[in-house]
Amino acid sequence: MSQALLAGLARTTAPRTMLRRFLALDAVVTGVNGLAYVAASGPLGRLLGVDGTLLFWLGVFLTGFAAAVGLLAARPAPPATAVKAVVDANLLWSVLSIAALALWLEPTAAGAVWTVLQALTVGGFAVLQWSALKADDAVTA
């Protein structure tokens, strides 16, 4: 991903600021998603065609993950190892979402669309975070 595109998306040319903003955006989106799953697992489960209990526990996990990513984003210089763990977790989530859709979930049409959109969004966060981390490494090296 080009530096210019990253800078445009992050509205800054400072790689570390880009990284922190992409982490913060991930934390907010993931946190809102997690809280929605916890607070409305039953109705959302019916809408998406997914077991409400599964959504509840996914929501608990996502809320915790979002808090950890938010704390990482708040650091002036997020450690590369921790950022790589977030990137890996996001990539894993994307792959598992598509695998679950193909192999064992039987969602409604809305649930199938939601699962794909969520996988693409989380995969996009991984790409943005990785690209910003590499740009920051290039500047600090």
Question: In words, what does this structure look like?
Answer:
The chain is mainly alpha-helical and 141 residues long. The chain has one domain. It has helices at 3-10, 15-39, 41-48, 52-74, 80-103, 109-140. Helix 2 (15-39) packs antiparallel against helix 6. The radius of gyration is 16 Å and the shape is elongated. 33% of the residues are buried. The model has no long low-confidence stretch (mean pLDDT 91). The chain crosses the membrane at residues 21-42, 54-74, 86-105, 111-133.
Average pLDDT taken over every residue = 91
* Total separate domains: 1
Helix content: over 70%
Poorly predicted runs are none
**Succession of helices and strands:** HHHHHH
| Share of residues in strands | under 5%
Q: Given the helix and strand composition, which structural class is it?
A: mainly alpha
Query: What is Rg?
Result: 16 Å
Keywords: Membrane, Transmembrane, Transmembrane helix
Protein name: Integral membrane protein
Organism: Streptomyces genisteinicus
Transmembrane segments: 21-42, 54-74, 86-105, 111-133
Give a short synopsis of this structure.
The chain crosses the membrane at residues 21-42, 54-74, 86-105, 111-133. The chain is an all-alpha fold.
